[in-house]
Design brief:
This protein has 285 residues and is an alpha/beta fold. The chain has one domain: 3-Layer(aba) Sandwich (Rossmann fold), CATH 3.40.50.720. The chain has eight helices and seven strands; from the N terminus they run βαβαβαβαβααβααβ. A seven-stranded parallel β-sheet has the order 3-2-1-4-5-6-7, sandwiched between helices. β4, α4 and β5 form a beta-alpha-beta unit. The two termini are 28 Å apart.
């Protein structure tokens, strides 16, 4: 892995962030990953698949034989890199651009995938956003509504639309966060949304158990993705991940295998649970 320590100071002005502007670039694939056709014939839908964790998941799923659709907001260059990576692996793919906080768009996404492949076996709700504020009184109603719309409502809308095309034995995987368990003093609304994602995961797992659809989550700690330099100032970025026991941020590629595990039959007796990939932070949750 490239990042053995914290990253160099850097900041991006636009949100969502752009991966091509990051130094060093996040790693989404590794040469030592050994695929075993664990998702052969499966169709996966991944949100936020243009970069970061979402791209790593898309690539790992493709290596395991899945056909991959991914949704992104407006990062066309990053999305093209994901598409190229999937093409290089030989996977069928579909990139869909739009805003998941709109219920109608979520329905359109699912319809496009159904028209192309006729089913959805794996749904990865991964897209999200964050906006640091040191004072709760600085969080405007519009920011609060936008954060919940992107991180929670979109997850509901897409899951509602996708379920009608998900056969028995399918898997839903949600990206929550270490902040849902240990909190964060400047990410109050973001942490609240991730707590909602964890509760949604547990409740939906119970709700869908009789349909044999498993629902689990991954709670990343500090991971080196475009979200970081586009969210924090240079000083904060230069210290990012340094407070973990491993004293560094994680790479997206280090999370990909966890999403494979939760999507395939290796985790057939696991539902309503959360995997914590956070550099050694103990959260007891």
């Amino acid at each position: 892995m490239t990042l053995n320590t914290t990253p160099p100071a850097q900041q991006q002005e636009q949100r969502p962030g752009r991966e091509e502007q990051m130094s060093p670039k996040p790693e989404y694939d590794t040469q030592d990953y050994k695929a075993a056709s664990k998702l052969q014939g499966k169709v996966a839908l991944i949100t936020g698949g243009d970069s970061g964790i979402g791209r790593a998941v898309a690539v790992h799923y493709a290596r395991e034989g899945a056909q991959v659709a991914f949704v992104y907001l407006n990062e066309d260059e990053d999305a093209q890199i994901t598409t190229n990576a999937l093409d290089d692996i030989g996977a069928e793919s579909l990139a869909i651009k739009g805003d998941l906080s709109e219920p109608e768009f979520c329905q359109q996404v699912v319809q496009k995938i159904n028209e192309k492949w006729g089913k959805i076996d794996i749904l990865v709700n991964n897209a999200g956003e964050q906006h640091p504020q040191k004072d709760i009184t600085s969080i405007s109603p519009s920011q609060l509504q936008q954060t919940f719309a992107s991180n929670v409502f979109a997850m509901f809308y897409l899951t509602q639309s996708a379920l009608k095309y998900m056969p028995e034995g399918s898997a839903i995987i949600n990206t929550t966060s270490v902040t849902a368990y240990k909190g964060n003093p400047i990410l109050l609304d973001y942490s609240a949304t991730k707590g909602a994602v964890t509760a949604f995961t547990r409740s939906l797992a119970i709700n869908l158990a009789e349909q044999n659809i498993r629902v689990n989550a991954v709670a990343p700690g500090p991971i080196w993705t475009p979200l970081i330099p586009s969210t924090f100032d240079e000083e904060t970025v230069a210290e990012f991940g340094g407070d973990t026991p491993m004293q560094r941020p994680g790479q997206p590629a280090e999370l990909g295998p966890a999403y494979v595990y939760l999507a395939c039959n290796d985790s057939s007796y696991m539902t309503g649970q959360v995997l914590h990939l956070n550099g050694g932070i103990v959260v007891n949750g």
